[in-house]
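Sample 1 of the test manifest.
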Amino acid sequence: MKRYIPQFCAVVLLMIASCSSEPKKLPILGNREPFEKDLNGKKVMDTIYQKIPDFSFMDQDSVIINNDSLANKIYVADFFFTSCPSICPIMSKHMLQIYNKYHGNPNVALLSHTIDPKHDTIPVLKKYAEKLGVKDNQWHFLLGNRDTVYQLAKTGYMSFAAQDSTVPGGITHSGYMILVDSKRHIRGAYDGTDEGQVKQLMSDMDILLAEEKAKKNEK
Amino acid sequence: MRNKIILLAIIPLAIIIFISSCGEENIKYQRYYSDGSQLYKIHCQNCHMSNGEGLGQLIPPLTDSIFLRKNREKLVCYVNYGLNDSIKINGIDYQGQMPAEKHLAAIDLAKTLTFITNSFGNNQGIYDVIEVQKNLNNCK
């Protein structure tokens, strides 16, 4: 019996190796539309995935952040306001954990959109960032017109979520953290108030970073 | 001789009474503490976090046991009326704003305060309703 142990181990190892050679891939969330395209004269079906719409907002350092400044980066987005007494502190704490883990990684950005632009002016956002311990420009606290931000949430980030107007603040205040890839596709949505979900988000970020790296190497 | 017998009877009796009342106190404390931990989850944890550590320089931790001891009488005022001062905790200045929790009953304030003054490295014993009421009357 003992003689078979090495063989047995070898088989198990092989199984493990074959599993890990197929990297896990994150789904692409949101609406999708099939379309016909021309490939060398032949008509083939392809899919258009929903993208985060164009936006342009100012961050705590008065720098304009738009899709160009986020090119080649994956990012995590959430919604908050600095004077929020309910779920925001816990979400900021979790964003801070993500920030600390990916600090200095040029392929990762964090965006926190304020939904209270009246109160959260640039100096207020700056102070909030500093007091959290954010000193560089990897985590952007973004100020934009309230309606524009709501519209972006509705048609962009949260389009997969049920419209829930019974919650104060609605979808923008539901505690979602959204993972977006460098092609502006939504790759994951997480409950930012839940410790386990945030852990999941971070391991999904690793998977997405590996995918992006592999794509870059292909080119 | 008679005196001795009486004494011998009284001493165990005294001990029994002492132990049982002590046990009652202890049960009351346990109940306060465990109810308090639930109340903390609902009313405080969003800001002060599950481990009482607060958030950066925005929300102070509840781990500064010297501060909590020194300000024991004022704790109930902080919670009931909110706090908007500049305070120094563990050497860091906080200028945030804690909203008032006016809808908490005195008994719930007592339980919550029993919880925080005996968690996160604090060890002050029970903070009961009588103390809450007395301190509430002295809030400025």
